[in-house]
Amino acid sequence: MKELVVISGKGGTGKTSLTASFAYLAGENTILADYDVDASDLHILLEPKIKKTYQFYGGKKANIIKEKCIGCAKCQEICRFDAVKNVDDKFEINKIDCEGCGYCYRICPTDAIEFKDNLSGEWYISKSRFSSTLIFAKLDIAEENSGKLVTEIKEVARNLANENNKDLLISDGAPGIGCPVIASLSNANYILIVTEPSLSGFHDLKRILELVKHFGYSAGCIINKYDINKKITKEIEIFSHNNELEIIGKIPYSDSFPKSLVLKQTVVEFDKSDIGKTVENCWGKLQSKL
Hints:
Distance between the termini: 10 Å
Structural class: alpha/beta
CATH superfamily of the largest domain: P-loop containing nucleotide triphosphate hydrolases
Number of helices: 11
Oligomer: single chain
Strand content: 25-35%
Radius of gyration: 22 Å
Shape: elongated
Low-confidence stretches: none
Number of domains: 2
Mean pLDDT: 94
Largest sheet: 9 strands, mixed
Helix content: 25-40%
């Protein structure tokens, strides 16, 4: 089993649209995973039927048992995150502000604070409309440990691929260079970076390539909307050549992308000629890398 992870240094490059198109072209002998757990959206295009739902507990949170609280305010005094509030002469802990350090729990003189596992979100095993298995997750608002959640669903996805003798795992990584991206890269066979010819796009391509090289992974690049700024596209090509980053393909700007999204279709389903063929050619090159 091989894993292709699709990432981008920034959002809005077309990463998820291309991942969905590759999922369509790969067919049902594929496992799909969405590692962008903070803002999962691959499932919107793939319209899966959820088969199993699992809860994700990301760390712990403190909570005051009001019946035991004597109002000494020690918890409020030591909380560095200003999570303890006095509301109508009653102390309570704001779940969003609480960082889960547990200090208040340890110093409370009456054991009025409990420190419990925090339900941070859910993840799902589903069947996409392409008949392939899709694993994705939804992290709750203001919750943390997204890297831990990515690691959890990545392990599940890889195990399902091996157990069901699937040849390929296609994963939609999170944008940026943070913890969920680092977790996404683990054990990947090939990394595809999707960029765009803008100043921010080029800047973030440099950052994400540095991260990929740090961990020693093989990577290629697709320049999406390459014709909106051909000067920066040329700079990206020179940079890629100098840094041994293969250009897998260049995709021109096309309104087929937004039109296909409105219909909840991949661009290769919507446009089977120009743009669809270009994306299909990119997929052919990626298959040779895997």
